[in-house]
Design goal:
This protein has one domain. Helix content is 78%, strand content 0%. The protein is an all-alpha fold. It is globular. The protein contains seven helices and no strands. α1 packs across α7.
């Protein structure tokens, strides 16, 4: 892979870590284990993702997250807990993918990877908070399943064509910003309604 493709792969995986960190880790580890991803020499440290232990733990966590993410309000609690975990995971994935020999690239990739994961996580959590206000339980399952499909599809595209995946990741990043701002406006509106005196 060229350096541009590695940056594109780092951007895509960081963004996806903000949605489904454990699934991204699990799928990437499996792909490495079965030879679908050939690592350049400077990425040999990433081979740890192909460890049976890492794959097993990530798979178990991904399964739990898959179920928790389908239940209204449980998903928001899960997102709240992962507000600190997903950005760090996204930053570490980006750091592992770029050339580790240049400290400037290390710092930039860590900050950008963590930022991308944080923004996508905020958009996901904001969208889910808005969905949780609907009275019926089915919209949660539909939105969560859509996130599952989008994550798997974009991860597969990132492995096959990192540049195309990065373009889609940028569009999803913009959508995440919009969702986070929309959720913020909704929360402010609800709080303002609750604070008005009853007549």
């Amino acid at each position: 892979m060229s350096s541009v493709e590695l940056l594109a792969l780092a951007a895509s995986t960081s963004l996806l870590a903000g949605w489904r960190l454990y699934f991204v880790t699990f799928a990437t580890g499996l792909a490495m284990r079965f030879g679908y991803i050939d690592l350049p020499e400077h990425l040999a440290a990433l081979d740890v993702l192909a460890s049976p232990w890492v794959i097993a733990v990530a798979g178990a966590a991904a399964s739990f997250e898959f179920l928790a993410d389908k239940v209204p309000w449980v998903d928001s609690i899960w997102d709240g807990i992962h507000t600190f975990i997903r950005p760090v995971g996204g930053a570490l994935l980006a750091l592992a993918i770029v050339d580790a020999s240049d400290p400037a690239w290390q710092v930039a990739s860590f900050l950008l990877g963590g930022g991308a994961a944080l923004v996508s996580h905020a958009g996901k959590a904001g969208a889910r908070a808005m969905v949780n206000t609907s009275p019926e339980p089915f919209s949660n399952v539909v939105v969560s399943t859509g996130e599952d499909v989008a994550t798997a599809g974009l991860l597969a595209l990132a492995i096959a064509n990192p540049l195309a995946a990065a373009v889609i990741a940028l569009l999803l990043l913009a959508l995440s910003v919009w969702l986070a701002l929309a959720a913020r406006r909704l929360v402010k509106r609800v709080l303002n309604l609750g604070s008005k005196p009853q007549t």
